Amino acid sequence: MKKILLIGSANMDLSMNLFKVPEAGETLLDDGGIAYTPGGKGANSAVAFAKLGGECVFCTKLGRDVHGQKLFNYYKETGINTSFIKVDPEAPTGLAVVMKEADGNNRIVVYPGANRTLNNDNIIEAFKSNPDALYIGFEIPFNMALAAAKVASAKGVPIFVDAAPASKDYPLETLPPVEIFSPNETETFEYTGIMPKGTDSCLQAAYTLYNKVKAKYIVLKLGARGSFFYDGKHFDLIPSFRPDDVVDTTAAGDTFTAAMTLEYLRSGDIRSAMTYGSAAAAIAVSRKGAGASVPTAEEVLDFLNKRARKQ
Ligand code: ATP
Ligand code: RIB
Fold it and tell me: What pLDDT score does 126 carry?
């Protein structure tokens, strides 16, 4: 089994079920319910690796507070290797306010807290785990993601990038060569100025990214429409699976990219990796929560078998 070092963010999510988000200057009373649940783009992907049968070493920074303690315990219970999780003495654990509207849309604001304090020493130390692959995202400072990528590259460790959240100011061209670089629709727009809607604009956006990032594959996540890959010569749209029900799309992208990476490391085949990612994400959107919505390897296999029988 391949060992994946994930250097990324951890948040406690405060999820609020709202009929609608308030307008500027408006106060709303809404008793749709709230919950504190484990989240953070990095952590959600770490949970996905562990639940899907991967070996995941998670390097992140938590605060010395109740949220940090709860998250640490949760990662341990989930089977994540927590040896390189650090606690910052001052900054609080990252907090995300996830506002979910009745129509299924969500808006997320993240207070990064301890995620901002991840430093070079933490990264160098984490590579003592001797990983077979590095997985990074941008909910930690970009220069730390870049530093991790450079260490991996020097050691010949393949790199996978969940390119979220995005900023057009990120110097993507400074990243060393990566296997897969994967943004969602709005992130693609932020990086390229092109909204990937139809095949032409997907190809144009992927081509623009391919010329900026030294990636073997650009994989665009397109929500319910599926995902699109480009490798400099070939492109294809891998349609999503229709979920039994769409309950909560939080962490669909984190689940998709981790599941795709895991399957790619097993098979080396981008199409089957994207199909596997799509199945895992389709299950995740049919359940509440972020990390909590991620399926197990058995659930994904069962889902794929049932869908194959229907065809
Ligand atoms: P999030 O920010 O909610 O974690 P994202 O915006 O990063 O997600 P999406 O493009 O929305 O990522 O979703 C990633 C993948 O999940 C899609 O490529 C698709 O395979 C699957 N997916 C997302 N939403 C749906 C849906 N409504 N139905 C089926 N599959 C979906
Ligand atoms: O991708 C979903 C995640 O984004 C949430 O869990 C929240 O913590 C934010 O990081």
Answer: 98
**Which residues does ligand 1 sit against, CB inside 6 Å?**
164, 184, 221-224, 226-227, 240, 243, 246, 249-254, 256, 278, 281-282, 285
Retrieve residue 214's tokens.
């030294």
Residue nearest to atom 5 of ligand 1 (CA): 253
pLDDT for res 204: 98
* Closest C-alpha residue for ligand 1 atom 10: 223
- Please identify, by atom number, the ligand 2 atom nearest to the C-alpha of residue 12: 8
pLDDT recorded at residue 311: 66
- Ligand 1: centre distance to CA 65 (Å): 32
Q: Which residue has the tokens 């060393």?
A: 176
Take residue 153 and report the two structure tokens written for it: 């590259």
**In 80-212, where does DSSP find H-type helix?**
120-126, 142-155, 185-192, 199-212
Q: Pocket of ligand 1, candidates 186, 240, 254, 275: which has the most ligand atoms within 8 Å of its Cβ, to mutate?
A: 240
Domain residue ranges in the chain:
3-9+42-89+115-310
10-residue mean pLDDT profile of the chain (311 residues): values are: 96 93 91 93 98 97 98 98 98 96 84 98 98 98 98 98 97 98 98 97 98 97 97 97 88 97 97 98 91 94 88 66
CATH topology of domain 3-9+42-89+115-310: UDP-N-acetylmuramoyl-L-alanine:D-glutamate ligase (3.40.1190)
Whether residue 60 contacts residue 118, with contact meaning beta carbons closer than 8 Å, is answered with yes
The rounded distance, in Å, linking the Cα atoms of 272 and 195 is 25
